From TrEMBL, chain A:
This is ABC transporter permease. Keywords: Cell membrane, Membrane, Transmembrane, Transmembrane helix, Transport. PROSITE patterns: ABC_TM1 (PS50928). Residues 72-283 form the ABC transmembrane type-1 domain. One of its GO terms (biological process) is transmembrane transport. It is found in: Cell membrane. GO terms for cellular component: plasma membrane. It is a multi-pass membrane protein. Belongs to the binding-protein-dependent transport system permease family.
TrEMBL record, chain B:
GO terms for cellular component: plasma membrane. It comes from Paenibacillus antarcticus. It is found in: Cell membrane. Pfam families: BPD_transp_1. InterPro entries: MetI-like, MetI-like_sf. The chain crosses the membrane at residues 12-36, 77-98, 110-132, 144-163, 184-209, 242-263. CDD domains: TM_PBP2. One of its GO terms (biological process) is transmembrane transport. This is Sugar ABC transporter permease. The keyword Secreted does not apply. Belongs to the binding-protein-dependent transport system permease family.
């Protein structure tokens, strides 16, 4: 039926036909929520009643003045620090595995594997790992450090470190595989040339590997930072946010659906979105600069 | 001297790799151990002790039946297939017109898709929920499907990148033969996109299989549980029976392990391409 149509008409039809559904979906599920969220954030809507009042900036004031709401950002710091450790380890393993290593493929697979597991399974694996007389305590006893055993998830001073550790275990392999891909895109001849020039491995790391993956390193670091700010899965599954492990996203979801303060929750989400966008824009600028 | 230094470095290198292997494997291996123990055995042994009977699958059948994991797999597979087919079609259609036609609004459309990746979906869930609710899709399988289609733009990216490498002269020669644009899309572009489609299947497949948040929030009823929410439900009723929970954990990670071992190369490539937006 299109055969007899001129290409000019076909063009019009195909552009409309092929973009209509995607554009509707994109608008409804990516942009409309943001618009609505801004609107709700200035109201006291509970999420279900037909009426609500405009309250201006009251919700925002609550977030920044009531310690109950802004102290949860402190928890992000643990995930933030873990992100740096995670990047460092990922970079280390990517570097050594980009050279010839016995059983290299085996190690590569093992290090990457955790990032394919689902969050609930990882949450349970680490509940088992940290529970009293669980995996960690038993391992410590085996290697003669039995005196260190304690309530890893019960002690409010330790809980976030334990959870950030589980999060590191989960995501390190992902960064590792990305770094490995970036490093391996450097030609073999570059290393060979530097070998001839008498460069050692450390020189090669500083002068060949690091510059070649600078961009991807920045990208991952900043993705990691926004990931740390919006940490949700692991703490929610493992502790439900109890014992001082509450993160901003858990708090937002609870405020919206448990306490039915949709207006306030929307304001919290706007704050989070704003932080993430700022971080992402900085990233894009840095990436542009690096090019 | 040089040799000695080299040997020490080499020992440290392998030592660090072995430690990493242990750190990854021990938490998982102890779960396998526990899943094969009887309740009594579990209570009296420590996590690092292997089970006495390696073929005690009682916990597995208990977890599989009691946790209705078959239902979880069925729902997951249904959502996975529909979402991936949808994402492939929608993504490749948009990528096709964006890469092949210079029309008014093209820049705007491109920017709209790019900008959407900046919005982390976890932050807008509060408002998204109201939209899904308005469409009467809460507690149906179409809630996650439509969200996976509408908010995950990654497929568009992967296709756009790939289409840049497909020469337009192919389209032109087909046009000389009188093929319509639709024919060109279905007969030439779509088949040539096969490698990119593999990438999309892997990246989206792993994300959807592992997603907990969306099904948890949008499909509360038990009939609609997917594998991750089915697993999450073990927390309450089986709270004291760790050996059953462990079996459920292993059941949930078996499919992804099989996929990983058999598709290793594609998975590495897929993740490498899918991540660089």
């Amino acid at each position: 039926m299109f055969k007899n149509m001129s290409y000019k008409n076909q063009r019009k039809i195909i552009i409309i036909a092929f973009s209509l559904i995607p554009v509707i979906l994109l608008f409804t599920f990516a942009y409309l929520p943001v618009i609505n969220m801004f609107k709700y954030s200035f109201t006291n809507w509970n999420g279900y009643s037909p009426e609500y009042k405009w309250v201006g900036l009251k919700n925002y004031r609550t977030i920044f003045t009531d310690p109950k709401y802004f102290t949860v950002f402190k928890v992000s710091l643990y995930y933030f620090v873990a992100t740096f450790v995670q990047m460092g380890l990922a970079l280390y393993f990517a570097t050594i595995l980009s050279f010839k290593v016995r059983a290299g493929n085996f190690f590569k697979g093992i290090i990457f594997f955790p990032s394919l597991l689902n969050g609930v399974a990882i949450g349970f694996i680490f509940l088992f790992f940290f529970k009293p007389d669980g995996t960690l305590d038993t391992v410590l006893q085996y290697i003669g450090l039995g005196s260190l055993t304690q309530g890893w998830l019960l002690n409010p001073n330790l809980i976030n470190i334990s959870l950030a550790g589980a999060s590191l275990w989960r995501y390190m392999g992902f960064n590792f595989i990305i770094f490995l891909g970036a490093i391996s895109s450097v030609g073999k001849d570059v290393y060979e040339a530097s070998d001839i020039d008498g460069a050692n491995k450390w020189h090669q790391f500083c002068h060949i590997i690091l510059p070649s993956i600078k961009r991807i390193l920045q990208l991952n670091l900043i993705l990691g930072i926004s990931g740390a700010i919006s940490a949700f899965d692991i703490p929610y599954i493992m502790t439900g946010g109890s014992n001082g492990s509450n993160t901003f996203v858990i708090q937002t979801i609870d405020v919206a659906f448990k306490y039915n303060k949709l207006g306030l929750a929307s304001a919290m989400a706007v704050v989070l979105l704003f932080i993430v966008i700022v971080v992402t824009v900085i990233q894009r600028l840095l990436v542009k600069e690096g090019e | 001297m040089y040799k000695l230094k080299y040997t020490i470095a080499s020992i440290l290198k392998y030592l660090s790799l072995i430690i990493a292997t242990l750190v990854v494997l021990i938490p998982i291996v102890v779960i396998i151990f526990a899943s094969l123990k009887t309740g009594q055995e579990y209570a009296t042994s420590n996590p690092l002790e292997p089970p006495t009977n390696w073929f005690n699958f009682a916990n597995y059948s208990k977890a599989f039946v009691g946790g209705k994991m078959l239902l979880g797999f069925a729902n997951t597979i249904f959502i996975l297939i529909v979402s991936i087919i949808g994402a492939t079609l929608i993504g490749s259609m948009v990528a096709y017109i964006l890469s092949r036609f210079k029309f008014r609004g093209r820049k705007l459309l491109m920017t709209a898709f790019l900008l959407a990746t900046l919005i982390p979906s976890v932050t807008t869930q509060v408002a998204t929920f109201k939209i899904i609710d308005f469409l009467h899709l809460v507690d149906t399988r179409f809630a996650p499907i439509i969200l996976y289609l509408g908010t995950d733009i990654i497929a568009v990216y992967i296709f756009l990148q790939f289409l840049d490498s497909i020469s337009e002269s192919l389209d032109e020669s087909a046009m000389l033969d009188g093929a319509s644009y639709f024919t060109i899309y279905f007969r030439i572009i779509l088949p040539l996109l096969a490698p990119a489609i593999v990438t999309v299947i892997i990246v989206k497949g792993v994300n959807i299989y592992n997603d907990f948040y969306t099904p948890f929030l949008y499909m509360p009823s038990q009939d609609l549980q997917v594998i991750s929410t089915a697993l999450f439900k073990f927390k309450g009723p089986y709270g004291s029976q760790w050996e059953v929970i462990c079996a459920a954990i292993i059941i949930s990670i078996i499919p992804i392990t099989i996929a990983f071992v058999s598709l290793q190369k594609y998975i590495y490539n897929g993740f490498a391409q899918g991540s660089v937006k």
